[in-house]
């Protein structure tokens, strides 16, 4: 019995097979004693026929074949994670932060209304022969509306950051489960 058996027995066979494949592809990346103990542990461990076939494929394959299967495995895992992430986006996109989304829309509308009010006030004051005051009110209304629109977009950016962070976290959890 190896000093690593307790550690190996807690890990799923799929994860151990992946470590075994990586160790065979680049032996310098894994401790030799650890790798040999892993080989012995996998030989003793009960495996499904599919897992046994995978083990035999790793043991008897040449280096180039193993590298190709590792790249294929990694790209399949990443594609699966992207699919899961897109599924999570579609499931959670409408359900989170509805109040903030409503506030964002209201603030955005207020910003647009401020532009209209400023332009209307400008035209009214020009008709009253107070062009300078009208121009100042137009500039101030544009600045205020700019602040409203910027704040509205800032809230939306925070919502998007939260959603992307959650989706990335879920994708990493899915990858770690495998």
Descriptive labels:
mainly alpha; 178 residues; 7 helices; 0% strand; rod-shaped; 2 domains
Task: Give a brief description.
The chain is mainly alpha-helical and 178 residues long. The chain contains seven helices and no strands.
Topology of helices and strands:
Blueprint (H helix, E strand, L loop, with lengths): L4 H5 L3 H13 L6 H13 L4 H12 L2 H30 L5 H30 L3 H47 L1
Helix pairs in contact: 2-3, 2-4, 2-5, 5-7, 6-7
Description:
There is one protein chain. The protein has 178 residues and is mostly helical. 84% of the residues lie in helices and 0% in strands. The longest helix is centred in the C-terminal third of the chain and has 47 residues, at 131-177.
Quickly count the helices. Answer: 7
What's the helical proportion of residues? over 70%
Q: Determine the mean pLDDT.
A: 81
| Main beta-sheet strand count, sense and barrel state | none
The ordered H/E elements are HHHHHHH
Backbone CA Rg: 31 Å
Intertermini distance: 27 Å
Number of strands: 0
> Could you say how many structural domains there are in total?
2
């Amino acid at each position: 019995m190896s000093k690593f058996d307790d550690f190996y027995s807690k890990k799923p066979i799929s994860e151990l097979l992946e470590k075994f494949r990586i160790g065979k592809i680049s032996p310098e990346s894994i401790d030799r004693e650890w790798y040999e103990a892993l080989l012995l542990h996998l030989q003793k461990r009960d495996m499904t026929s599919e897992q046994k076939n995978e083990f035999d494929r790793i043991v008897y394959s040449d280096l180039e074949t193993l590298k190709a299967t590792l790249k294929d495995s990694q790209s399949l895992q990443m594609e699966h994670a992207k699919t899961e992430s897109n599924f999570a986006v579609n499931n959670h996109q409408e359900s989170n932060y509805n109040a903030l989304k409503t506030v964002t829309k209201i603030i955005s509308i207020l910003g647009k209304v401020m532009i209209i009010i400023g332009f209307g006030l400008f035209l009214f004051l020009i008709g009253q022969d107070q062009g300078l005051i009208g121009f100042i009110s137009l500039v101030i209304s544009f600045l205020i509306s700019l602040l409203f629109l910027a704040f509205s977009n800032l809230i939306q950016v925070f919502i998007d950051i939260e959603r992307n962070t959650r989706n990335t976290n879920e994708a990493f959890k899915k990858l770690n489960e495998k």
